[in-house]
Specification:
FAD/NAD(P)-binding domain; seven-stranded mixed β-sheet; globular; Amino_oxidase; FAD
């Protein structure tokens, strides 16, 4: 294109405006670099997106977040970005998560590691030693991840095979013969789509400990993180371009990217490029021939975590009281079993929360129910595509499929909250296809590439690629979730900014 010669060249062009892309953009812009973020959809934020139906606001991915008590890791990261005091937050109850089983028994997780430990010992007085050992292990493992503790010294966990290969299910099972306690300790494993034979204990530990360090909801939705990060970025001179779907790139003779190409013919020139898109999709965009076969084959062969079916119900006014805690409901005794579900008895395990809405007070405006769904269930419509930016139709059969699934979820919900059906005003749902189309990943995976304790380094994705000026960020680099992705953005930026100085700025924020 003729325009390329006179076009602005950015220091950094970032593909994708999910949290990883926005966090990288902010870090780099705050250090004085010129930054452009390209987003294919009309709404920025990836999993931070919200949508509204019938005047109710629904989160697509962020239902609550940890590490937000004063001085904790995410608290400091948000302070560094200058957005903490602009976020509308609601701290969850001291007993913030309830693990509930089909027999009606409930076990609460309490905020703070000491309270968590005490509460569990109240439920299982004969298991005090196992519970204390578990809590000590949580703390010990989390110490092995320097950035999680806002430290830079050493990447000890990468050299520590024992940390990476410790399996979550097996470690918990080794602590006690009490099967119910084992299931309570792993009861929130929907947070990372836990797989009994694969999920490493460090995934369980990092995520669980962050929630114990201050669990909060975002009042009126998690999209405010993206909104505040985008405002901050613009204040530092960065730019965000929507409706820019990147489909390819041009290269110089040294194999460096000179510009990316969008599907509308536009190009964006840059010195360095960061992809916040799933690694396998990144390979497709930037040209399979540009990557070493060994790398390409390894990435394309990696297994993604399962997708989800998300049901949103809105309530008639003043009919259902707001819950300032979450419920992990298991209709089967084995909390790891819901991922290999039988379609006949689905959903066997799911997450329940009521979003915090500023105008509603005592009563809930809506409820979100999140459960596992294999992408194969929606495979017959895999050839369709539908977003607000590119509306498409999936047809009547798909609508019927969703209705039937919604009815199954609500029937299950009746066993938890008898009579809830009478309070429901409307129902909406999102399938693996919705997540695939909006987030731009394979199969609508919720948490990206699955970590595997049996071969931990094979599932590790480096931020640097063999294309000299192409880097990766996002949930596949370190860990998913608000905290994991924020950490991954810093890891990506360490290629360009002195990490000691950068983390010191976070600590001093």
């Amino acid at each position: 294109m003729q325009t390329s010669a006179v076009q602005k060249e950015y220091d950094f062009v970032i593909v994708g405006s999910g949290l990883g892309g926005l966090a990288c953009a902010n870090i780099l812009a705050m250090e004085g670099h010129s930054v452009a973020v390209l987003e294919k959809n009309h709404q920025i934020g990836g999993h931070l997106q919200v949508y509204s139906r019938d005047k109710s606001i629904y989160d697509t991915g962020v239902h609550y977040v940890g590490g937000l008590d004063e001085g904790e890791n995410l608290y400091q990261f948000f302070k560094y970005f200058g957005i903490l005091d602009k976020l509308k937050l609601k701290r969850l109850d001291e007993e913030f998560d309830v693990i509930r089983f089909g027999d009606g028994c409930e076990y609460a997780y309490a905020q703070g590691i000491e309270h968590f430990e005490q509460k569990l010992i109240e439920y299982f007085p004969g298991e005090a030693e196992a519970i204390r050992t578990f809590c000590a292990k949580l703390v010990e493992v989390c110490k092995k991840f320097p950035l999680y503790n806002l430290e830079t010294a050493g990447e000890s966990y990468l050299a520590d095979e024992a940390v990476l290969s410790l399996n979550a299910h097996d470690y918990i099972a080794s602590l006690t013969d009490n099967v119910r306690l084992r299931n309570v300790l792993a009861g929130s494993n929907l947070l990372y789509a836990g797989v009994k034979t694969k999920t490493p204990f460090y995934v369980h530990a990092l995520i669980m400990k962050s929630y114990l360090n201050g669990a909060y909801k975002f009042i009126d939705g998690g999209s405010q993180i993206a909104i505040q990060l985008s405002r901050s970025l613009r204040q530092h001179g960065g730019k965000i371009f929507k409706y820019k779907k990147v489909t390819g790139a041009n290269y110089d003779e040294k194999g460096r990217i000179t510009e990316v190409l969008c599907d509308n013919g536009e190009t964006f020139r840059g010195k360095e490029f960061i992809s916040n898109v799933h690694p396998s999709v990144t390979i497709d965009i930037f040209g399979q021939e540009r990557f070493l076969s060994v790398y390409k084959n390894r990435v394309l062969a990696l297994e993604d975590s399962i997708s989800t079916f998300l049901v949103h119900i809105s309530f008639h006014d003043h009919t259902f009281e707001y819950l300032n805690y979450n419920i992990y409901q298991h209709h089967i005794d084995d909390v790891w079993g819901g991922i290999d579900y039988d379609p006949e008895t689905w959903p066997q395990t799911y997450f329940i929360c009521t979003p915090s809405i500023s105008k509603k007070g005592k009563y809930a405006d809506s409820m979100s129910i999140m459960t596992y769904m294999n992408a194969e269930e929606t495979a017959q419509w895999a050839g369709t595509f539908s977003t607000v930016a590119e509306p498409g139709k999936r047809g009547e059969e798909y609508a019927q499929f969703k209705k039937e699934k919604e009815a199954k979820v609500i029937a299950r919900l009746e066993t938890v909250f008898p009579g809830i059906s009478a309070t429901i005003k409307s129902v909406h749902s999102a399938s693996p296809l919705t997540f695939r189309d909006y987030i731009g990943n394979r199969n609508g995976t919720m948490y990206g590439i699955m970590k595997d304790s049996t071969s931990p380094l094979r599932t590790r994705i480096n931020t640097r690629t063999k294309i000299p000026n192409l880097h990766l960020t996002g949930q596949n680099v370190s860990l998913h979730g608000i905290l994991g992705v924020t950490v991954s953005a810093f890891v990506t930026c360490f290629s360009f900014i002195d990490k000691e100085k950068l983390i010191q700025k976070v600590k001093n924020a």
